[in-house]
Amino acid sequence: MNPYFKTPPVVKNLLIINGLMFLATTLLSQYHLTGYLGLFNPLSPLFHSYQVVSYMFLHADFNHLFFNMFALWMFGRTVEYDLGSKRFLIYYMVCGVGAALLQLLVGWIEYHVLTGSPETWAYAQGLLHVPTVGASGAIFGLLLAFGFLHPNAQIMLLIPPIPIRAKWFVVIYGVIELFFGISGYQAGVAHFAHLGGMLWGLLLLLYWRKSRRPLF
């Protein structure tokens, strides 16, 4: 069987874990697991340090889960075959935790800026109780890795339906996320977490290359 159509072990287990966590948060909604495992602003009374890991295994709804897991399956298989399962898992977790750290920093800055004005003080207090969830930060790190390792691979876009090289896809997506993050145009999405996943992923890949550790 062509290995391209096989799902390597780490990707397979990540798909299973995310699916089980979604079932748990759905079926055990009375326990409000997101309130314990989602990532909260560092100034929130609901914040706990373990959330920088646990948040990436929760999703807001089925669509959120589906698109993240589809991207994990699409890009993660190739990246895991490239890096090897052990290094792939390290990379995935570093991207996910790195995404959380940047999101926490941005949330801390945003809170202090908003509480500086009486008009936005109440809104800032509300932000302390809004969690960040999802594997998107780690997924964006995988997208970065795919573009880094296979820069000239062709990716077929859906809208518009045109092919584009992976390296340009990553650059364009990163610029779009930076624009949305700074402008606040698309509220309710953790754009800086996405950028954090890409940033930490790039740093790790550059470190591995500089230390002359083979990426393949």
Describe the protein's architecture and organization.
By secondary structure, this protein is mainly alpha-helical. It has one domain (3-210): Up-down Bundle (Rhomboid-like fold), CATH 1.20.1540.10. Helices cover 64% and strands 3% of the residues. It has helices spanning 9-27, 34-37, 51-54, 62-83, 85-114, 121-127, 136-149, 166-183, 191-210; strands at residues 154-156, 163-165. It has a two-stranded antiparallel ribbon. Helix 7 packs across helix 9. The protein starts with 8 loop residues before the first helix and ends in a 6-residue tail after the last helix. The model has no long low-confidence stretch (mean pLDDT 90).
What Rg is obtained from the alpha carbons, in whole angstroms? Answer: 18 Å
Could you give the order of the helices and strands? HHHHHHHEEHH
Q: Runs with pLDDT <50, length 5+?
A: none
Which percent bin holds the helix content? 55-70%
So, the CATH homologous superfamily? Rhomboid-like
Number of domains: 1
Number of helices: 9
Main beta sheet, described?
2 strands, antiparallel
The order of strands across the largest sheet is: 1-2
CATH class category label: Mainly Alpha
How much of the sequence lies in strands comes to under 5%
Gross morphology is: globular
Q: What is the CATH architecture term?
A: Up-down Bundle
Structural class: mainly alpha
How many beta-strand elements? 2
What value does the average pLDDT take?
Answer: 90
Look up the CATH topology. Rhomboid-like fold
